[in-house]
Design a protein that fits this description.
The structure is a single chain. By secondary structure, the protein is an alpha+beta fold. The protein folds into four domains: about 90 residues, Integrase, DNA-binding domain (Double Stranded RNA Binding Domain, 2-Layer Sandwich), CATH 3.30.160.390; about 110 residues, Tyrosine recombinase, N-terminal domain (DNA polymerase, domain 1, Orthogonal Bundle), CATH 1.10.150.130; about 130 residues, Intergrase catalytic core (hpI Integrase, Chain A, Orthogonal Bundle); about 30 residues, no CATH class. The protein is about 50% helix and about 10% strand. The chain has 17 helices and eight strands. Strands 1-2-3-4-5 form a five-stranded mixed β-sheet, covered by helices on one side. A three-stranded antiparallel β-sheet has the order 6-7-8. Strand 3 and strand 4 form a beta hairpin. The longest helix has 27 residues. The radius of gyration is 30 Å and the shape is elongated.
């Protein structure tokens, strides 16, 4: 027999078992989900199940036992199951397929199919799936694609991730771990050798390469020798502080000339809402110049007829515009810690903004960080340096030690010069 009640934690806890199995449906509440029910066995087990009639036959999908599965989770999963059925997918068949994921290649195939459902539902972006496909095909498939998931141990998992960490770095290590955990979770496999493994703390490995004033000068001299399209692109990378992919694919429809802003859509950005970038006068001047030179109906700010994407690309390899620029400026090195990378321009802008007195809040908004705490974690030490300088001046004032005037500072520097340098300075001033 079936009964209808509004599912709450308390109402389900109060349900008592009887001699025969009873089924209660979720009914009467503002959040109730049609088709969701809970079966109570004579032993007292309470199991959430979703039932929907398809082509005249009931499709019954087991969700899990209460209270391990909460009412909120059960309702959420019931809605997802209903969506799968609406897309012509039988969830029970999908579950069997997941359990039959013999190899990691099978496991990733299940992951792809489940991810595509999330894309259809608007929960995830196709761009994210493509990124994970690239990650798996390049870095995981050659190593473990053919291996059995059933025989794969936690020790094997540690060895794989340690090898990635030593050969490819902490960032790929963390992305690989996230993907592998998700593959197991989506496949509904209980035994997950990656479940207890932790990401590497990025603060111990974070790259801090920025351009010094002298390097900036050489950098500007180098990009001046590039074609307009590449010079303008690099300048906008520096002046906006945005990521390489978003600048290369910048579209005219994203630019608001009246407000002097650039709105990056969610399809290009790691956020659930568009990111609005304020554009400086220098950045707007570049865009105005490019607008005048653009062909009628041109979609991209930096178009390319040779690229499949329709805009310029750069792999940062030999022959690319970035390699040319860094080699001319003597900023290229085989040592990755010294070699200037495109992302270092973003870090350079943020560093100069903070050290010149800019707030972490403004810098966070510019970079599009989801939280100011992320920005503070990376750039707080620079803000502290500013505070320290102000504190030095305040301390000297309080103690009656006034800070030397600019003229007094220059005099002190001149007095410290050698006789030869003083003579050269005298000749310069008199000339």
């Amino acid at each position: 027999m079936k009964y209808g009640i509004n599912f709450t934690k308390r109402s389900l806890e109060q349900l008592e078992p009887s001699e025969k199995r009873k089924r209660y449906s979720d009914f009467g509440g503002i959040s109730s989900v049609r088709g969701l029910g809970i079966d109570i066995s004579p032993s007292g087990d309470k199991t959430f199940r979703y039932v929907q009639k398809v082509n005249g036959r009931n499709v019954k999908v087991t969700i899990g036992k209460f209270p391990e599965i909460t009412v909120e989770v059960a309702r959420h999963q019931a809605k997802e199951i209903a969506q799968q059925i609406a897309c012509g997918i039988n969830p029970n068949v999908e579950k069997r397929n997941r359990r039959n994921a013999d190899t990691f290649n099978d496991l990733f195939a299940v992951y792809e199919e489940m991810f595509k459902l999330d894309i259809k539902a608007g929960k995830r972006r196709e761009r994210s799936l493509k990124g994970n496909q690239t990650l798996y095909n390049l870095h995981l498939k050659p190593a473990i694609g053919h291996l059995s998931t059933e025989e794969y141990t936690k020790s094997d998992a540690k060895q794989l991730l340690n090898r990635i960490l030593s050969q490819k770095g902490y960032s790929l290590h963390n992305h690989a771990l996230t993907l592998l955990k998700s593959m197991y979770n989506r496949a509904d496999i209980d035994s997950n050798p990656f479940s207890t493994l932790k990401k590497v703390d990025e603060s111990y490995h974070r790259r801090e390469r920025t351009l010094s004033p002298d390097e900036l000068q050489r950098f500007f001299e180098s990009i001046d020798q590039e074609e307009d399209i590449y010079r303008d692109c690099i300048l906008l990378l520096l002046l906006t502080g945005q990521r390489k992919a978003t600048v290369l694919s910048m579209e005219w429809r994203e630019i608001n000339r009246a407000n002097q802003t650039w709105t990056i859509p969610t399809s290009k950005f790691k956020s659930k809402k568009p990111h609005v970038v304020p554009l400086s006068g220098e950045a707007m001047a570049i865009l105005e110049k490019r607008s005048k030179q653009a062909a009628s109906g041109e979609e991209f700010v930096f178009p390319s007829k040779r690229s499949q994407s329709g805009h310029i690309t750069d792999k940062s390899g030999k022959g690319g515009f970035w390699r040319r620029v860094t080699e001319r400026a003597e900023l290229y090195s085989t040592d990755s810690s010294k070699n200037l990378q495109v992302h270092d321009l973003r870090r350079t802008l943020a560093t100069y903004q903070v050290t010149s007195g800019g707030s972490l809040q403004a810098t966070s908004k510019l970079l599009g960080h989801s939280s100011v705490s992320i920005t503070a974690d990376v750039y707080a030490h620079l803000s502290v340096d500013n505070v320290r300088q102000e504190l030095e001046s305040t301390t000297k004032f309080m103690l009656g030690r006034s800070t030397p005037s600019p003229l007094e500072q220059i005099k002190a520097q001149i007095l410290s010069l050698s006789d030869e340098d003083k003579e050269e300075l005298r000749t310069f001033l008199c000339g």
